[in-house]
Specification:
136 residues; alpha/beta; 2,3-Dihydroxybiphenyl 1,2-Dioxygenase, domain 1; three-stranded mixed β-sheet; 2 helices; 28% strand
Length: 136
C-alpha cells in the first residue's frame, strides 16, 4: 500500500516549527515541493509515502477528527521520549506521557501528543524492556 497523510493547520509557520522538531527525531527530512501553502516530510515521496500539512482546501478552518491519530514507529524508548519532548518544546500538548499502558502488551512503549492545531499523534516502540532501559 502506498499512502500519504495530511493534517490541516490554521497556522502553517507554527505547524512547520512543530513538525520540523518531531520529524528531526524521526530522521524524516522536509520533502521537496513545499510551498507557502503546504509542507511535507518523509524519505520516499516517489513511493507515495509522506506526511503533509496545509490549510484545508475548502477554505474552512482546520479541525480535529475525534478518534483520528497518526502513529510513528521508532527504534527505542529513548526516541519515544525525545519525540514527546520535542513536541512539547515546539507548541504541542501532552496527550499521554511516554511509558507502557495496562491495556497494551507490556513491551509496547508509547507516547501521545497533540500538535498545535489539536491533531493527535503517537510515537511507539515495540520490544521495550525496562531492565535494559531505565528511562531518562
Amino acid at each position: 500500500m502506498r499512502l500519504y497523510t495530511t493534517y490541516g493547520t490554521n497556522d502553517l509557520p507554527r505547524a512547520i516549527r512543530f513538525y520540523d522538531a518531531i520529524f528531526s527525531v524521526l530522521e524524516q527530512p522536509r520533502l521537496p515541493g513545499w510551498t507557502k501553502t503546504r509542507a511535507g516530510w518523509g524519505t520516499e515521496p516517489e513511493a507515495g509515502t509522506g506526511f503533509w500539512i496545509c490549510r484545508p482546501f475548502d477554505g474552512r478552518p482546520a479541525n480535529v477528527g475525534n478518534g483520528t491519530m497518526i502513529a510513528f514507529p521508532v527504534q527505542s524508548a529513548a526516541n519515544v521520549r525525545q519525540f514527546h519532548a520535542a513536541g512539547l518544546e515546539h507548541g504541542g500538548t501532552d496527550a499521554g506521557v511516554p511509558g507502557t499502558r495496562d491495556y497494551y502488551a507490556s513491551d509496547f512503549y508509547v507516547t501521545y501528543l497533540r500538535d498545535p492545531d489539536g491533531n493527535k499523534l503517537s510515537c511507539f516502540y515495540y520490544h521495550y524492556d525496562p531492565a535494559q532501559d531505565p528511562g531518562d
